[in-house]
Amino acid sequence: MLYPTRKTLASCFLAAGALFSPLNTAAAQSIGSPQVNINHQALAADFLNRSGFDPEGASQVSVEQLLERSFFTMRVGVFDLGLSSYAALSRTNGDNFALLAGALLEVQAQFLEWLGPKAPGIKEAEKDLKTLRSYFKKLRGNAINKLDPKQTGDVMTLLGASKKALEAQERFGRYMARGTALGLDREDEYVDTFLVAPGRRDFLELLSTFGAISPPNQGVYWTNDVATWTNTYFNDISVVALEFASLGSTTGGAFAGVSMNSRTPTGMQQQISQLAGNAMIDNLFGDKIPPSLAGALSVNLVVEIYGECNTRVDGDLRARRTQAREIFVPGGLSEGGILPPNLADSRWRSEHGKDHFLVALQSSQAAGASEAKKKHEKNGCFELMDDREAKRMVVKAPFLGTPAADAPPVPDDFWGDSLEFYRSYRTGFIYWLRTKGQRSKKSSEAAFAAYLTQLAQAANGADSLEATFEEQYGKPLSAKEPSKQDLEGQFLDWLSKL
């Protein structure tokens, strides 16, 4: 049976308390169900008919058959990127497919840069990166949309890419999927499949088809709630919409969408890059890195590539009003319809991550310090706001690792702000660790690279995370009372002096 989860990413965020939905990590979360009625059976029938399947026998169709007959793919390192052959008839969709292939390549290139010049096989990998970058840069939708939709397969092969490009594709794919850069050299190649849906109808058709071929999961995919989703999983396959839902539209209904690039020119690439970063880290590290830390690493990858992380993948994803900070979107449905372009950026995202969220963190820290009861607690106190920004409360470090496990729960009114705080805090901590954790930037980067490699090679699963911190840095990750004797305490002290 197929399950709508993705490996260890289907668990909840630990310590930090950030809720993680295994089904829909990137959907703006509305209050109640949207007032749309989706005919899932009809949508599935449309998709299956175009793919040459009899909708009456949908439950006999395997996901492998569906992918083989219905999708063009592109192997990009550790990823297989897929676009339905029907959607590929559009030149715009083909252009976006090429852009997203380049985005997936850059996520891996940035990760390899973190691992540094001593990573095994890095020189040959860099040559392959150069070759693939050149190929993707020249790839255009008017070539992809001329492909025969019935002759699916790898786009580079179908388009007759040069021998050099195809060899680079195969070699780089093997290099990343086997974890060679981390010294793993796994015998099998572990590849993550990403299917992209250009429009809202494309996305809903695909989810409806999942329900059709896997009837036990119709309770997940055949609901009206999917109208607000932007990504989900079918077994280990990631499915990503390239439009936000716009349920406030009076004409488009469930199929109304707004481009992810409406918020920022590279919004689409940023969105898939963050999701891909999560998947890559899970692929290479498994349960040695919890989803909370994987998310922080991914946000940093996106900021390094695009100079910001203006996405809707994690944190507080509810639609909120700019002025009153109310739960419902102005002009939306009374149940909380989603109009992503009108989403108010929280105070944590005012700079869209250009500053690695440090300015908002320091502001919260300064406000919390004024309410600290003890002098030595000042650096570790942060102020949160309720949904209406009328009430204040203080949360106190530690926020990382085992010492944070006993933290009291955050009241419901402050839950959204706490999600944004924890997201910013983890992201800022990883940035500090990688660039400021040692006496110089160079030594910090070298220690960070060594840490990632050592952690990947560790044998004892989830327990290795904190043990490896202490082995590599000579200090524990955190303590019940953070100080300069642990990494979190050092980070808090550094943050207070920015």
- Strand arrangement, largest sheet? 1-2-3-5-4
How many strands, which pairing sense, and closed or not: the largest β-sheet?
5 strands, mixed
Work out the helix count. Answer: 16
**Overall shape:** globular
Mean pLDDT: 86
The percent range for helix content is 40-55%
Work out the radius of gyration.
23 Å
Q: Give the topology string: H per helix, E per strand.
A: HHEEHHHHHEHHEEEEHHHEEHHHH
Q: What is the number of strand segments?
A: 9
Class based on secondary structure composition and strand pairing: alpha/beta
Cα distance, first to last residue?
52 Å
DSSP strand content: 5-15%
As residue ranges, the low-confidence spans are 1-32, 320-342
Total tally of structural domains: 2
